[in-house]
Amino acid sequence: MGSYVSIENGKGVIYGSNQDDYTFGPGDIKNSTFAGPGNDIPLGNIKSPSARFIIVFNDERKAQMDIILEKVDSFKVLFGLK
């Protein structure tokens, strides 16, 4: 299993099998770059298309995230991204 991002109580949490969990909140993201279409993300019996972003945090850590297309705007608003 790889890693995935969950939004919990107004913060993002990156859960990964090869790393410690990483929690971030509004103001913790330094930069985000759209990197093209992402992998389809299974939600129950359906797969939802996603968009891939490269996120750079203020502590210089980087993450590649595939965000469900219909959730991209909500993600941007929550974390103050353009």
Q: Gist?
A:
The protein has 82 residues and is mainly beta. The chain is 10% helix and 55% strand. Strands 1-2-3 form a three-stranded antiparallel beta sheet, with no helix packed on it. Strands 4-7-8 form a three-stranded antiparallel beta sheet, covered by helices on one side. Strands 5-6 form a two-stranded antiparallel sheet.
Description:
It is a single chain. The protein is mostly beta strands. The protein has one domain. It contains one helix and eight strands, in the order ββββββββα. The strands form three sheets. A three-stranded antiparallel beta sheet has the order 1-2-3, with no helix packed on it. It has a three-stranded antiparallel beta sheet with strand order 4-7-8, covered by helices on one side. Strands 5-6 form a two-stranded antiparallel sheet. The longest helix is centred in the last third of the chain and has 8 residues. The radius of gyration is 12 Å and the shape is globular. 6% of the residues are buried.
Features:
82 residues; mainly beta; 3-stranded antiparallel sheet; 8 strands; globular
